[in-house]
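Re-run with default settings, no changes from the original entry. Doing this only to confirm the output is reproducible before filing.
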Amino acid sequence: MNHNEPYSDEYLKDILSSVKTIAMVGASPDKTKFSYGVLRVLHETGYNMIPVNPRPGIIEIRGLKVYPDLKAIDKPVDMVEVFRKSEDLYSIAEEAIAINAKVLWGQIGVINHDAAKLAEEAGLKVVMNRCPKIELFRPFWKPRLDLKI
């Protein structure tokens, strides 16, 4: 896939409607950080969120257990969302492959074509330089009206 071209609405919709569990690498407990807001919205939308942050002392974000890395997660992960530097994406792609994730998603500004190629060759779908929180508000998305507010 050419990640320099826009992703089709169908591709993004397929990912966002099929994944249930999202591990967020680079999740922050700081409510002023963009990663916290994205985690909050995805969690409130109904996704099972798994915050990943290796800093000692961070054990919970929004009542969710924090894991130090992807391999420490003790349940299946559908999507790995990355809030890290672009150069970190390759090693995170390797970990995503090792835990049998189905999707590798790099946040806005997170682009690494070698990581994308590695993940795609292992069978993962890849999105880079996009935000799933923003994509949820695009016209193709139908909100889940069965969720309690």
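The two ends are 38 Å apart (CA to CA). The chain has a mean pLDDT of 92.
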